[in-house]
Amino acid sequence: MKILITGGAGFIGSHLTRLMVNKYPGYTIHNLDKLTYAGNLANLSDIENNTNYKFIKGDIVDAEFINDLFIREQYNAVIHLAAESHVDRSISNPLEFVMTNVIGTVNLLNAAKTLYKNNPSSFIKFYHVSTDEVYGALGESGMFTEETSYDPHSPYSASKASSDHFVRAYHDTYGLPVVISNCSNNYGPNHFPEKLIPLCLNNIINNKPLPIYGKGENIRDWLFVVDHAIAIDIIFHEAKLGNTYNIGGHNEWTNIDVIRLLCRILDKKLNRPEGTNEKLITFVTDRAGHDLRYAIDAGKLKKDLGWVPSVTFEQGLELTVDWYLDNQNWLNNVTSGNYAKYYEKQYLNSN
Ligand code: NAD
Ligand code: TDX
Question: Ligand 2 — pocket residues by CB below 6 A?
C-alpha cells in the first residue's frame, strides 16, 4: 500500500508518520509538506533514511502540482493533516486559512477523485484529520458527539468545518471512500511553542511571563499526541467508510490549572523553590471569540474500535516536560526561526 500523509513534518503529522513507517514496513509512506514555520524535518530525523519513507516538499494549494503527483505516484490512500492550525494566527490572517485548509483540501479531494474514478479498487481511502473546534463551544455541561451540529466561531474552526463538509460532499456526490476524525487539544513532544502548553513550557525555562487569556477559566480536553496517532492508525484501518469518529482524552482542565500543574512540575525539575514558576503567570487580554469549553465524547471510538488513551494527563505532561528539557536545541532552533532554511538545505543537499 502506498499512502500519502500530508503535513507529516508538523506536530501531529510527525508522530503519525513515525508510527506508520515503523509499524508497517510493507507500506510505502510519502510525507508531503510545504515546510511552513510549523513544519520541521528535524521532527523525523530518526526515520528519514528508512527505505519505506520519502519526503516530498510541496504545497497542497498548488492544484497542478497535486494532480501531477497523484497521477505519477498512484496512491492507494491519503491521510490529510496539512493545515494552518493556530487560532490566533487565523484571527490576524483568515485568508491563509481558507487557502490551505479549504482550497488545499479540495485540491487533494479532486486528485483523489481522479484516482478513484480511474481505478475504484485501487484507491481505498481519503482520511481527513479534523478538530473538535468545528462543533463550537460548550457551556458548563454536555459533550460533543459525532451528531453535534457544526457551529464554528474562529476563522480557523470555520475553515476546518468547511473542509469537513467538502470531504463529506465528495463521499455523497462522487462515492469517494472517506473517513473523518475530530480530535480534542493535543499536547506532547514537537508541539510548536506558540500553543499554550509548549509556549508556557518554553517561557518557564527562560523565566519569561506566562500569558493567560482572560481569567484562565476556559476549558480544553487534552490528549497526548501519541494517543491521537494510535487512534488515527486504528480508524484508518478499521473504520467503516463514510464514518466520523470523535477522539478525546476525557480530560478536561481549565487553562489556569494546566499552567499551575506545569509550573509545579518544572519547579521540581529545574530545582526551583516551590511556587517560583507560578509567579510568572500573567493575565492578558482575552482572545476574540474565545470558546469557553470543549469536551469530547469518544464513546463511539471505544465501543466500535476499542480505542482508549494509553496515558493519564499527569504521565503525558511529565513525558512532555522531559522531552522539552532534553531537546532544548529543538526549542532554540524553532524559536530562532533558522530551522526551516537549515533543514531544507540539509534535505536538498542530500538528495
Ligand atoms: P501543525 O501546524 O503543527 O502542522 C501542520 C503541518 O502542515 C506543517 O508541517 C506545515 O508545514 C504543513 N502545511 C501547512 N500548510 C501547508 C500547505 N499549504 N501544503 C502542504 N503542507 C502544509 O499542525 P498540527 O497541530 O500537527 O495539526 C495537524 C492537523 O490536525 C491539522 O489538520 C489540525 O487541524 C488537526 N488537529 C490539531 C489538533 C491540535 O491540538 N494540534 C487537534 C485536532 C485536530
Ligand atoms: O498564550 C496563550 N494563552 C492562553 O491563555 C495561548 C496561545 C492560548 N491560551 C488559551 C487559549 C485556549 O483556551 O489556551 C487554550 C489553548 O490554546 P491553544 O494552545 O492556542 O489551542 P486551541 O485554541 O484550543 O486550539 C488547539 O486545539 C484544537 C489547536 O491549536 C488546534 O489546531 C486544534 O484544532
Answer: 85-87, 131, 133, 185, 195-196, 199, 211-213, 218, 220, 255, 287
Cβ(16) – ligand 1 distance below 6 Å? no
Secondary structure (H, E, C), 66-109:
HHHHHHHHCCCEEEECCCCCCHHHHHHCHHHHHHHHHHHHHHHH
Domains of the chain: 2-349 (3.40.50.720)
pLDDT confidence tier of residue 116, bands split at 50, 70 and 90: very high
CA 46–ligand 2 middle distance (angstroms): 29
Are the beta carbons of 78 and 170 closer than 8 angstroms? no
Q: For the beta carbon of residue 205, count every other beta carbon within 10 angstroms.
A: 17
Mind telling me the catalytic residues? 132-133, 156
**Strand, coil or helix: 98:** helix
Residue 347 pLDDT exceeds 50: no
- State the chain's mean pLDDT as an integer: 95
User: Which residue CA neighbors atom 20 of ligand 2 most closely?
Assistant: 195
Atom of ligand 1 nearest to the CA of 132: 43
pLDDT digits (tens, 9 = 90+) for 50-84: 999 999 999 999 999 999 999 999 999 999 999 99
- CA–CA distances in Å: residue 350 to residues 32, 49, 55, 151, 185: 17, 11, 12, 46, 36
Closest-lying ligand to the alpha carbon of 286?
Answer: 2
Q: What φ, ψ does residue 225 adopt, rounded to 5°?
A: -60, -35
- Name the pTM for this structure: 0.96
- Cα(6) to centroid(ligand 1), Å: 9
> Alpha-carbon distance 333 to 59, whole Å?
23
Q: Atom of ligand 1 at shortest distance to CA of 9?
A: 9
DSSP-derived secondary structure letter, 138: B
